[in-house]
Amino acid sequence: MQTVLVTGGAGFIGSHLVPLLAERGISVRVLDTLAPQIHGMLPGRTLDWLANTPGVEFVRGSVASEADLKASLDGITAVVHLAAETGTGQSMYEIDRYCRENVQGTALLMHLLANGAAPSVQRVVLASSRSVYGEGAYTYDEAADSIRITPSFRTAEALRAGQWEPVCPKTGTALKVVPTREDDRTAPASIYAATKLMQEDLVRITCESAGIGHAILRLQNVYGEGQSLNNPYTGILSIFSTRIRRGLELPIFEDGMESRDFVHVSDVAGAFVAAVEAETSANCVINVGSGVATPVVEIARALCKAFDAHENVRVTGQFRLGDIRHNVADISRLRERLGQVPAVSLSEGLRRFATWVSKQPLPEDQLGRANEELARRKMMG
Questions:
Q1: What is the CATH number of the domain that holds 50?
Q2: pTM of this prediction exceeds 0.70
Q3: Which of 64, 77, 83, 175 could form a disulfide with 8 if both were Cys (CB 3.0 to 4.6 A apart)?
Q4: Which domain holds residue 281?
């Protein structure tokens, strides 16, 4: 029988993945710090599912602690590494914390595996991020053989001038967005993204040299039931849901046409299970998304509809340094390597999310405070 360690397993994705693994007869050990920014000061009943899921052992601890990791790895056959700090904007000024938790935590995990601390581990599955691409892939035209490029990150000067769309770095001409493939160039535009790419390299290089199977899942914008409603730095839908419930407007950065690939958490959990259970380890990077690009202003309006609320949406023209303009995943490899096809449509996913949110305690709206912090540090315009 497999015994899987899920780091950060008490979080959003873990709350869907861990029960799914347990349902399939896999023993699960969860290692999580229960960080207040994600879980609130007192996790309370929100973590009852951990205690009530048969076959699941919970350990409160950190991937940055060698003692915690060593104890958690005992008897483990596979590791799903979810633990990470995840706020793009926050990462631009809390650089040390993001590098310590994301990079050093992963380095310590791989150090222990490479040096025989858990000889039974046969596979590592890493939760990476679409942010490692920076801007998504673009071409000059619609021709099938058109050259694919990844533009450099957008400068503060361009954003202040309202030049939202990336242009060709050589000619300044307009570009066409295309689905991003795993072999497209990576170009992190935030500290968070840089730490995720470093995690990928640490896992890939260590596993290849130690003869351990691996899979690196680059997640698009994950949303759904169980999302943290307390963290003002990640999860646009959770932030907006609180403001909708409080009757506040939804401020949209730039011109609102920046787009993201929104994928429901149940589809993401399914991809992790497939990566764990695959007869042969994927040993590669795999995009996990819906394959559909949705402008942020459209997702805000759709969320209002899911809550049956007035569309109190305002496009502000403000921006955050480090944000990308567009990214949508090419999910061909997800189908080919893991046999996974996203099953939850955006409308259904938003309906399920809104139904769940409506049953939760109403959180404090923290968006204004988070934006004030970014503005004070000159990371927002």
A1: 3.40.50.720
A2: yes
A3: 83
A4: 3-376
